[in-house]
Amino acid sequence: MPHGIFQRIRGEKGKVEIPALGALIATMSEWSLTRRGGEDAVSALYDLRAVFSYLNPHLWGDEDYEKEIVVTLGRSKQFRVQKASGEETVLVGRTLLMKGVSIHEHEGR
Amino acid sequence: MSTKVVDIADPSPDIDIVKVEVRGKRYTFRELTIAEYDKLIKQATREEPDSDGDMQEITDSSLLLRLMILKSCIDPKITADALNDLGSKVYRALSSVVNELHYTPEPIKQIKDEDEAPAEKAEETPKGND
Q: Which of A32, B2, B4, B104 is buried most, with the most CB atoms less than 10 Å from its CB?
């Protein structure tokens, strides 16, 4: 997806899965993606804020398994959210802040 | 396809280790501690609404078994992706090893009073019953 199309978008549906295990570990009740601004590569990243309606904290916190975060925009448009290395992730209760993510079109399953 | 136990290491007082060969490849499994097992139970448990809309916890036994194989197999270390690439029969064989390792209780030796304190037993022998 080209960067810079929007400054901020928000939605309701989203999920976190561990594809290798076929495990759904979180669902979202709301989310937003905010662009950092600027034209360089780092500024083109977004910050993801999400509130989980369901979260399995035991699998979320297990670093052995790669997670896939997907947010749904509108009825069916899906984007995969990928964290950039070295960026901060904070989870407080069921509220998530993931800084410095890139977004990619996702084939819905 | 057969699974054969090729070696059983000297039993640790706490943790059992078993080595098996499946389709020509050797695997070493170790028994999980109960704390590790409890953690995997939590990982495999999710909340779902029942028919009344009340949330209930459901443990996904298939996911639990996968997590147990991944955690229990120490040589070679298997990743979740590698587990997906295993043949179905190999997976079934590894599953049976893990099930056997974790769900078959240790043999229990019942200790009778006379084994523990034979001297006291002698003293308790009834007298004057003949």
A: A32
